[in-house]
Amino acid sequence: xxxxxxxxxxxxxxxxxxxxxxxxxxxxxxxxxxxxxxxxxxxxxxxxxxxxxxxxxxxxxxxxxxxxxxxxxxxxxxxxxxxxxxxxxxxxxxxxxxxxxxxxxxxxxxxxxxxxxxxxxxxxxxxxxxxxxxxxxxxxxxxxxxxxxxxxxxxxxxxxxxxxxxxxxxxxxxxxxxxxxxxxxxxxxxxxxxxxxxxxxxxxxxxxxxxxxxxxxxxxxxxxxxxxxxxxxxxxxxxxxxxxxxxxxxxxxxxxxxxxxxxxxxxxxxxxxxxxxxxxxxxxxxxxxxxxxxxxxxxxxxxxxxxxxxxxxxxxxxxxxxxxxxxxxxxxxxxxxxxxxxxxxxxxxxxxxxxxxxxxxxxxxxxxxxxxxxxxxxxxxxxxxxxxxxxxxxxxxxxxxxxxxxxxxxxxxxxxxxxxxxxxxxxxxxxxxxxxxxxxxxxxxxxxxxxxxxxxxxxxxxxxxxxxxxxxxxxxxxxxxxxxxxxxxxxxxxxxxxxxxxxxxxxxxxxxxxxxxxxxxxxxxxxxxxxxxxxxxxxxxxxxxxxxxxxxxxxxxxxxxxxxxxxxxxxxxxxxxxxxxxxxxxxxxxxxxx
Length: 594
Fold this sequence. Notes:
Elements lengths: L9 H12 L3 H14 L4 E7 L5 E6 L6 H6 L27 H7 L2 E7 L6 E7 L2 E8 L4 E7 L6 H5 L4 H18 L4 E6 L2 E6 L4 H9 L7 E7 L4 E7 L11 E5 L3 E2 L2 H10 L12 E6 L5 E2 L10 E2 L2 H18 L18 H5 L29 H5 L12 H12 L3 E4 L3 E5 L3 E6 H19 L4 E11 L2 H16 L3 E5 L2 E8 L7 H9 L13 H13 L9 H11 L15 E5 H8 L1
Parallel strand pairs: 1-7, 11-13
Antiparallel strand pairs: 1-2, 2-6, 3-4, 3-6, 4-5, 7-8, 9-10, 10-13, 11-12, 14-15, 16-17, 17-18, 18-22, 19-21, 20-21
Helix pairs in contact: 1-4, 2-6, 6-7, 8-9, 13-16, 13-17, 15-16
């Protein structure tokens, strides 16, 4: 029988590795930017077209590569970071596995220009599908420029799995944030389809956060710091009152590398316990410096997951540190009652009380009613009975009929636990989740308004302005048409949205949270599966504007909501595929009483 085991060709092995390392355009951005950091660059430019599907280019002013090194860099497991297995436990650089460039060149067309400071000429390289197509000398400044074109051009099945440009752009921006926040000392520029999204100068950590998320975030930050034998920790947490529904402002960095750790995230969340509203998450930007020998960063191809040697102690340190900072900056509740200083006793008055304190004399024998008691007649029994005259119940059944009439005219709904609306049916009871019911009503109204363009808009007496971050500005152009169709009158002015009109079903106090939800990454909205951008927008707006649990509704509001719900096309599930109501029939109720 013939042998059946054989070695995979290099280009096939590279494509398999690419499936682990390069999942989407954002993965390429991460790897190229981290390589630029490792090359000791002080200025890095990121330029993308077509949300990274067409072109991703990273230009740095780092140390560059020799003609030989640039070819070796695209071979599998070629790296300058480690020489032996022991080096895996003393890693301080970003890339070290030697898979990124080989994986990228296996599923894209790559062009490289690189030059060292001492070289007279630069080296140009062109690789497609792991094959070297061209190599020659060129003219270029010191550093490296890598352009990745037509990602997944030779793996169409993988390309088909990519999401819309809007979603892929969000992922690229997320990766850009992670690298830029890790290295505030480096200048970063980000261009998208020829438009500048970010221009981040070299600054300190606090300013870098403000440059990315807007200047207003500076006043929301509380510094945290702790130095122990386990780790040196510093950074910022966001004040509890500014917590968000999304996790977009949660960052852990270990040895200048962004990591994901649900365990450590829980440490921060537990420190905020009792300070956040339901479904809101704390924001934090936490740097940790840990001995590389006590962590293992080689457990995942993307290197975003780390194994800690002393994870439990680290958990306790982070939780204690955050709690301490919340207390120090009075973000946590304390027994501190405000007083009016004008009511305080002056110091001089305490030392020198008035010399003449007036005295009060009381005659204990004085009785003003003593003489008048003799003249008060005692009430007779008949006089007491006269108080109840006219209140006798009639002998006929008119009272019963009036009571029945009052019951018949009483509302058919009532609120339970400020969360459910209960109404009766012919066969039993209907228990409706008020939030899900309202989501369904709003969702269908918004979808109808987009189709018919007939949503009623109310003009604001005082226009509102919402500050936008650079990535939100980039996304607004795609959302503007749908927002206008839904009844918003909104225009972009510099880095603000100028809002002069809102849908009649919207409250102007909801605008801040509403636009935060609209611009939040899709991944932060659980179970929001949509077939179009309009459908997605309708779902997000219905979720943001709907009445919430723990809200008292009047009887008229309860009845109106029930009527609106059963006027919808679909009354069974909310836009997020959850049941809106349950029924309790007569038999079920009787069984529970047996």
